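User: Teach me something about this protein's shape.
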Amino acid sequence: MKAKTLILAGLAMLAALAPQNSPAATVPAGTILIIRTLHAVASADAVGSRFPAQLASNVAVKGKVLLPAGAKLTAKVVTSRRLASSKDRLTVDLMDVHVAGRVVPIRTTGPQVLSNDHRTRSGVEVSRVSYTVPAGKVMQFQLAQPFNF
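Assistant: First, the predicted structure itself:
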């Protein structure tokens, strides 16, 4: 009986000393993430292809910067025109953010279109079937769910 009590007391002390897994910060749903692509993305890229991006501006909550500009993110191609018969537009979404030495999955409100449209000098809108969006494209996403890190 005494040995059992000592074991239970020892386990209780170890549990008290164990690090707590409480998050250091929470980025709430609805937060806007303004990102910049770090590689070119092409309309012929395969669905699911990943590419790097970074935050173009700080993400602050209640005046405290939680994610600094330059924080790395991973994005992926959601739809593309890889197949010649496809009528899909090139859309991309964010997958995760690299923060505090960890890769944290994130969920946005949905993919964003990387447009291939441009206007001529006379104002006519022209759409190209095959195109590449150069690195440095700035995009905006909104978080659908909060995430902790």
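Now, about its shape. The chain has one domain: 28-148. The chain has a mean pLDDT of 86. If you'd like, I can walk through any region in more detail.
User: That's plenty for now, thanks!
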